[in-house]
Amino acid sequence: MKTAAKMAPDSFRNDPVESLPGSSEFGMSDDPEQFSEIYKDLAELVGVGNARKIWKVYAGLNITFPQRLYSREYTRTFIAKNYQDKSPRELAKATGLSERRVRQIIREIKSETKE
After folding, report:
1. What is the pLDDT of residues 53-76, one digit of tens each?
2. Which of 51, 65, 97, 108 has its CA 20 to 30 A from that of 82?
3. H runs (alpha helix) in the chain
C-alpha cells in the first residue's frame, strides 16, 4: 500500500502549479466552476493552484480521511499535560473524544504515575 508520504512530493508549497499538458494552449479554464465537484470543493478550500497539485498527485485514487487528526499517542500526551488545568469537558472538546473517554484516559494516566 502506498502512503501519502511516499507518493507526495516533499511540499506542495514549493512545487510550481502545472496544468494538463497542452491545456493552456487549447484554452482550458482555470475557473473552478468548470472543475469536477470534488476539485471544485478543493479549489474553494485550498485555492485553484493547490487543488491542481492535489489532483496531479492523487488523481484516480480513493482516499479516506480518518476522523481523528491527531495520533492516539499525541492525544494521550496532550491530556496528560492538561488534565490538571482543564476540565474533562474542555479536553473532550479539544481532542474530539467523549468526556467519558477523557475520564478513562485520565484514570489510566493517574494509575500509571502511581506505579
Report:
1. 999 999 999 999 898 889 999 999
2. 65
3. 4-7, 37-46, 48-58, 72-82, 88-95, 99-114
DSSP per-residue letters across 49-80: HHHHHHHHHHTT------S--S-HHHHHHHHH
Residues 6+ apart with CB under 8 A from 82: 91, 94
Among 88, 74, 38, 76, which residue's Cα sits nearest to residue 58? Answer: 38
Q: Hey, what's the cell of 59?
A: 488523481
- Average of pLDDT values for 96-113? 96
Q: Cβ atoms within 10 A of the Cβ of 77, count?
A: 13
Domains of the chain by residue range: 4-58, 72-114
Mean pLDDT, the chain, whole residue set: 83
**pLDDT 10s digits, 13-28:** 555 555 555 455 456 7
> CA–CA separation, 16 vs 31, rounded Å?
18
pLDDT at 2: 47
